[in-house]
């Protein structure tokens, strides 16, 4: 039996689940992710779309061109505005739901190491790199 992981928005109106382990756990430092989360980076669990299910709620999405050229869509709760996941058109992320790790219902899943940092040239200078994490740029 596969592991089932769930997540939800702040108000609880929207939820999702996925089976199995994420393909990658990554932090993204790009300007777009800063705007999406209102912080210095996002923490993303890349889940193959075939393993992902919306379990409840009315979500809305918004798409815009990313500063590095791909299209990026965010999917968020219409009630509280929480971004639950993103989708990107670049080859490395096609077919993935980029679950926003802060929406996971089980906080213990955040204790595992991040393996990848994306767009580190955009990292704020006071935030240290993660030891052992691959430093990648998708374009």
Structure description:
With 139 residues, the protein is mainly β. Helices cover 5% and strands 42% of the residues. The chain is built from one helix and eleven strands, in the order E-E-E-H-E-E-E-E-E-E-E-E. Strand 1 and strand 2 form a beta hairpin. The longest helix is centred in the N-terminal third of the chain and has 7 residues. It is globular and about 40 Å long. GO terms for molecular function: carbon-sulfur lyase activity; metal ion binding.
Topology diagram in text:
Blueprint: E1 4-8, E2 15-19, E3 24-28, H1 31-37, E4 42-48, E5 52-56, E6 59-65, E7 71-77, E8 83-88, E9 96-100, E10 116-118, E11 134-136
Keywords: Lyase, Metal-binding, Zinc
Domain CENP-V/GFA: 5-127
Family: Belongs to the Gfa family.
């Amino acid at each position: 039996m596969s592991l089932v992981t769930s997540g939800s928005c702040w108000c609880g109106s929207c939820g999702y689940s996925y089976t199995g382990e994420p393909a990658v756990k990554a932090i993204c430092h790009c300007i777009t992710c800063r705007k999406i989360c209102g912080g210095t980076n996002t923490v993303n669990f890349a889940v193959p779309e075939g393993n992902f299910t919306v379990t409840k709620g009315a979500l809305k999405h918004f798409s815009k061109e990313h500063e590095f050229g791909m299209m990026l869509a965010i999917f968020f709760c219409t009630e509280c505005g929480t971004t639950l996941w993103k989708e990107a058109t670049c080859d490395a992320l096609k077919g993935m739901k980029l679950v926003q790790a802060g929406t996971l219902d089980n906080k213990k899943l955040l204790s595992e190491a991040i393996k990848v940092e994306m767009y580190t040239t955009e990292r704020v200078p006071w935030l240290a790199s993660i030891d052992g994490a691959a430093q990648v740029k998708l374009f």
